[in-house]
Amino acid sequence: MSKILVIGQHADGKLNSGIAKVVNAAKAIGGDIHVAVFANDGAAVAAQAAALDGVAKVLVVDRAGNDDYVASAIAPQIVALTQSGGYSHVLAAGTTSGKDFLPRVAAKLGVQQVSDIMAVHSATSFDRPIYAGNAILTVEAPAAPAIVATIRLASFQATGAAAAAAPIEKISVDAVIPGHTRFVSLAAQKSERPELQSATRVVSGGRALGSSENFSIIYSLADKLKAGVGASRAAVDSGYVPNDMQVGQTGKIIAPELYFAIGISGAIQHLAGIKDARTIVAINKDPEAPIFEVADYGLVGDLFALVPELEAKA
Amino acid sequence: MKALVSVKRVIDYNVRIQVKPDGSGVVVDGVKHSVNPFDEIAMEEAVRLKEKGKVTEIIAVTVGGQKCEETLRTALAFGADRAVHVKVDEEIQPLTAAMALAAVFKKEGAELFFLGKQAIDDDAAQTGQMVAALLDLPQATFASKVDIDGGKAVVTREVDAGLETLEFDLPGIITTDLRLNEPRYLKLPDIMKAKKKPIETVSLADLGVTAIAGLKSVKTANPPKRSKGVMVKTVDELVTALKAKGLI
Ligand SMILES: Cc1cc2nc3c(=O)[nH]c(=O)nc-3n(C[C@H](O)[C@H](O)[C@H](O)COP(=O)(O)OP(=O)(O)OC[C@H]3O[C@@H](n4cnc5c(N)ncnc54)[C@H](O)[C@@H]3O)c2cc1C
Ligand SMILES: Nc1ncnc2c1ncn2[C@@H]1O[C@H](COP(=O)(O)O)[C@@H](O)[C@H]1O
To answer: In a mutational test of the pocket of ligand 1, which residue from B10, B11, B12, B13 has the highest number of ligand atoms less than 8 Å from its CB?
Structure first.
C-alpha cells in the first residue's frame, strides 16, 4: 500500500484551498495520506488539514522562516521527511509555490517529477498535459525510490469534511537549511472578489479593453455576477491589470462553471487555461475569432456596448 | 562574471499540435521548430546584463540532437559569445537535462544561470529548480525583474498571489517569466556573425552524467474536444440561455 505525503501549502494562516483537491488525488492513488505543514507556527493550518476527509495524520514542522516558503529552505525539509518516513509518494498543489520547491525535492531524491497530474490511473500511472494541453500524455513512473508529483488543481474536486479530525503530530526534521536566499517582500493584490482559481464564475478581459480605466466594465460585470476576474496575457502585458490575473498556459489554469472571454481572441495559450471550464461565453467583434470554436455561447459585437447591456440584464 | 543560458529546441508556439493516430507521440517531422520562447527571454536578459557591464561572457548551452545546433546559432546571434552542445540523440527528461546543465555550469565556473521557466513542449517547469538543487545553489523562478549588484541578485517573481521579491547571494539560478523583457529582433549581421562563433560539442559521458530512469510514455492522446456551441444574436438571447441553464 502507498504511503502518501501531501505538502500542506498555506499563506496568511490559511491552508491553500487546493490542498483539498490534492488530498482527493491522493485518495485516487490509495493509501495512507499524511499532510505535512511547514510553518513558523503551524497549529491553525494543521487543524484545517486535519479536517479534510481522507487525511490519516497531519505532521507539523515549526521553524522560523518556514512561512516564507523559500524553495531552498523548504525542499531539504521535505526530502528529510520523505526519507525518514519512507513515503512512496510526495504530492504538492501545482501552484507557483509547488512548482518552485517540488522539483528541488525530486532532484535530491534522484527522480523525475510528474508535473501537473490531471488523472490517476493507478499508484504509478498518471495523465498529464503537454503542449499547452493540446495533447495528453499517459506516463508510468518508476515506483522507487518515490513518486514526486504536482497536481493540476483544475482537474480534481475537493475532498469533503472528515467525520472526525485526524491526529496532529509535531515533529522536527533533520535538514540543513542554507542561508544564501532571503525572502524580501510579497506584493499581494488584496481583493474582495472571489479568488480566480476557486471562483464558480469568472469574467476575463483581453487586449480589446484598451486601458485599465476601460477594464472597469469587466470588474463591474463580475461584481454583478459575483465572479472572479481574469485576463489574457495581452491585457496583463499592456498593464491594464496585474500579473496574477493572467489565465492560460503560463498563467492560472481554472475550471469555473461559467467563463466569459471578452475581447479575447482565443490563442491556444489562453485556451490552455480554460479547457475545464464548464460553460464558455465569448464576446468578440470578429466573427472569425478562434474563441468561437470553443465557446458554448458566442455573441458577435462591440464589447463596449454589449458588456454594460449584459450587466444591466443579467 | 560568466553567465550560462540554456536554450531548448521546441515545436514553434504557433504550430497546431497533431497527435499521431497510433498514440506514440506528436508529429514533429516537417514541423517548424524554434527556440523555446522563455529561453529567448533568458538570452535577452543575459545580453542586457552584458551591455550593462555586469556580465563579461555569455555561454549558451543546449542538450539534444544534431538539429539543436540551429538553436545554438540563434542564441549566438542574440549575443552569446560561445556555445556548448551536449549531444544526446535519445529523448531526455528534465532531471537528466539538469544533470548535464549543472555539470556545464560547474565546469565553466559560471556565476549566473538563466533558464526558461518552462519548455513549451513538455510543460514540465522543473529543470532550473533541479539544476539549483543538484548544485546546492539559490534559485529564483518565474522572474519578472532581475537586479544584479554587489555579489547579490534581487529578483521579482510572478507568483499566484502577486509579485514576490527574493534576494540571493551569487552564484545562483534564475528562471524567466514572460514579462522579464521583450527579446530583440535579430538582425542579419548578427546572424552572419553567429556563424563564426565557436560551438563545443560534448557527450553526457564527457560530463560524467548517466541518464537516469525516466517516466515511461504509455500513450499520447488528444484532449477531449469541446464542441462548438451556439451563436446568439442579442444580449437578451444570451441572458435567457444562461438563466435557463441556471448559470446566472
Ligand atoms: C510561450 C507563450 C505563453 C503564453 N501564455 C499565455 C497565457 O498564459 N495566457 C494568455 O492569455 N496568453 C498567453 N500567450 C499569448 C497568446 O499567444 C496571445 O497573444 C494572447 O492570449 C492574446 O491576448 P488577447 O486575446 O487579449 O489579444 P488579441 O489576440 O489581440 O485579441 C483581441 C481580440 O479582441 C477583439 N476585439 C477588439 N476590439 C473589440 C471590441 N471593441 N469588442 C469586441 N471585441 C473586440 C478582437 O477581434 C480580437 O479577437 C502566450 C504566448 C506565448 C508565446
Ligand atoms: N534539453 C534541454 N536543452 C537545453 N535547455 C533545456 C533542456 N531542457 C530544459 N532546458 C531548460 O530548462 C527550462 C525548463 O524546461 P522544463 O523543465 O522542461 O519545462 C527550459 O526553458 C530550458 O531553458
So the answer is: B13
